[in-house]
Amino acid sequence: MTRTRLFVIAGVMLVAAVVCLVLGVMQISADQDVESYISGHYQQYGSDPNAVRYVCSGAPSNVADDIEDFQDSEARASDDNSEYLRYDDSIVVVGPDGDRPCTVRVEDINGGYSHGSYIFLGPGFHPGSPDSSSGGSSGGPGGVK
Question: Bias regions of kind Gly residues — which residues (predicted)?
Fold first, then answer.
């Protein structure tokens, strides 16, 4: 083999190694869900059967932006000083809690507590309702029409 051919083979192997590294890093970050991200970036200060609470610093809207930089939410709304992020299996509430000016509350939608409690935020926040729902009810047993 010539020296040029060895350099070409080494170059192809280097490109393949970089591609494999990038794909591996992308897979690792894709495996992490929003709850894992929050637990890895914020300090937990409390929990109950319905939710886990974390301390954050800064404005709640900025913290919500940081969380959405990791993973876009399916829906987002604000109410007073709190930001609400709707994910596939959880609702994340970023806002004040008692004497804490910034907290992150992660509530499991499948836990049973949140069903319907965020309907005031509009479509996308009622667990089980599609984002395209009218948000109202027909009053009958069939629900939204």
Answer: 136-145
Q: Report pLDDT for 144.
A: 44
As given in the structure block, the two tokens for residue 127 are 């667990």
What is the domain partition of the chain in residue ranges?
A: 42-133
> Which residues on neighbouring strands pair with residue 92, listed in sequence order?
85, 106
pTM exceeds 0.90 = no
Q: Give the Cβ contact number of residue 122 at 10 Å.
A: 14
